[in-house]
Design goal:
CATH superfamily of the largest domain: P-loop containing nucleotide triphosphate hydrolases
Number of domains: 2
Shape: globular
Oligomer: single chain
Structural class: alpha/beta
CATH architecture of the largest domain: 3-Layer(aba) Sandwich
Length: 496
């Protein structure tokens, strides 16, 4: 096996964004690259592909600036023979061209199997796919999941063209969080399509993700290709990013050891949400099974509930309605003895609910954190922090961070995505309300941090708190949530 190794340094103005020695991508293997969000996985890959703007960023690869690196044959061959699937598909899609036109741009026009690829990615190519192909991409149409699948279709067309030629080339296919907007069923379809093609012809592929459940799916359904894969993790050590081997055995052992908490709920009702909340012309139906009869959601103290639905159904929308962060046309809920409805004034949530009876930790930490605040400023705003010194803040941080006092003075805007998420979680846990709503709590975290968050959840549950959880990490949370504590959500268009 041969590998491509590079030393990469990327900076903006006087601040280093990522610095790594020996960033390795084994040739003719699929490398699953893990690591917390914002640590630099995407930037390093884009630098190798020649996709970073030298006027905005200072990029050095193997000691050369990006202009000199781009004169090499390597980046030209990677772009010509490979494909880069961006984490945010709108980065790639042209709003001035229909999706059909973009599926056939440049070298993609001669690539085979378009109809078959679309059929796989759309689970049988529904009738409205022909209409979708005529759409000009805009912020809200197509949906995020549809845009992502269109970009995946382009990549698979390029892979199929490579297989059809059957000629060895220097290529790199980068899939950057390719399933971030997809539910688990579509994630599994993507993995099957990628690995089936890899069985037919070995090619170099970098699959960037923080979805650790991919590992379990690969070992469960595609064990025959595991030996042809490389599992890596990038971690931040000081200001330097280090690429290490990821111990899949340790992860699978940890996963197999997860069990539901033995805490027995005492039956004191903390949260009640009636099925049928209405918003944006849709009715949100809660049930105990995917297509079951409507039922209210009931959360008692010491319980951990898991709300499941396909991506884009409205899980986050529903909990934001309950938190009073979105206005609904219809809502019936109760937090403790406080009744909530579509008519409840926002001031009531502010005075009696937010951070007092109920806390929500957002999926995206940037929704909750002030980018200009310091880490200490975020923690000092907590009611429990009044009059506390640095020792108190450091004890809080050590729950999820391995840092020194200098970290307290770091601005939020200079934290990685994973660091922001950990700080966001710490603040939510520290508020210590009876009800804690967690929207994708493992989003962007590394394996070690994910394990610590699970342990903190258990402690909250044992302390009698009620936790409502939303997560696509079913592989993990199905092991720690009892089946009777799982709710499903589906959306119905009002009037249909």
């Amino acid at each position: 096996m041969t590998s491509t190794r590079h030393t990469i340094h990327i900076a903006a103005a006087d601040r280093t964004l990522v610095s790594i020695k020996n960033f390795e991508i084994p040739e003719n293997k699929i490398t699953l690259l893990l690591g917390e969000s914002g640590i630099g996985k995407s930037l390093m890959s884009k630098a190798l592909f020649g996709l970073l703007d030298p006027d905005e960023l200072s990029v050095r690869i193997d000691g050369e600036d990006s202009a000199k690196y781009l004169t090499r044959a390597e980046p030209r061959e990677l772009q010509q023979n490979g494909f880069f699937v961006f984490q945010e598909p709108s980065t790639h899609l042209n709003p001035l061209l229909t999706l059909k036109s973009q599926l056939n741009e440049g070298s993609l026009s001669a690539a085979p199997n378009e109809a078959a690829i679309l059929s796989e990615l759309w689970s049988g190519a529904p009738a409205d796919l022909a209409h979708l192909l005529e759409v000009y991409p805009k912020p809200y149409r197509p949906s995020g999941g549809e845009k992502q699948r269109m970009l995946l279709a382009m990549a698979f067309k390029k892979i199929d063209a490579l297989i059809e030629r059957g000629v060895a080339t220097r290529e790199l296919f980068v899939f950057d969080e390719p399933t971030g907007s997809l539910d688990n069923a579509y994630r599994d379809i993507f993995l099957a399509m990628l690995l089936d093609r890899f069985r037919r012809m070995k090619f170099t592929c970098l699959l960037i993700t923080h979805d650790y459940s991919m590992i379990g799916k690969i070992f469960e359904s595609h064990a025959d290709v595991v030996s042809e894969m490389s599992f890596k993790e990038v971690v931040l050590k000081g200001e330097i990013v280090v690429q290490e081997e990821f111990d899949t055995g340790a992860y699978l052992k940890w996963l197999g050891g997860l069990r539901p908490s033995e805490t027995v709920p005492q039956g004191r009702r903390l949260l009640h949400v009636e099925s049928g909340a209405e918003v944006f012309g849709r009715r949100l139906i809660l049930s105990r099974s995917r297509d079951g009869a409507p039922t209210p959601l009931e959360l008692t103290n010491g319980e951990l509930l898991y709300l499941k639905a396909a991506s884009g159904t409205g899980k986050t929308t529903l909990v934001k309605l309950v938190m009073g962060l979105l206005r609904s046309e219809r809502l019936t809920a109760q937090v403790g003895d406080a009744a909530l409805s579509y008519a409840t004034h926002r001031r009531f949530w502010q005075r009696h609910i937010w951070g007092k009876r109920m806390t929500m930790v957002f999926q995206h930490a940037d929704e909750a954190l002030n980018p200009e605040s310091t880490v200490k400023g975020v923690l000092a705003a907590l009611p429990s922090s009044r009059g506390q010194g640095e020792a108190y803040f450091m004890n809080l941080l050590r729950e999820l961070f391995d840092v020194d006092e200098r970290f307290l003075r770091k601005k939020v805007k200079h934290l990685s995505g994973g660091q922001k998420q950990r700080l966001n979680l710490l603040r939510g846990f520290a508020l210590d309300t009876d009800v804690l709503i967690l929207d994708e709590p493992l989003n962007g975290l590394d394996f070690e941090s994910a394990g610590k968050v699970i342990a903190m959840l258990r402690r909250k549950q044992e302390a009698g708190k009620g936790i409502l959880l939303i997560s696509h990490n079913e592989e993990i949370f199905d092991n720690i949530v009892r089946p009777e504590n799982v709710y499903h959500l589906r959306a119905e268009i009002i009037g249909h």
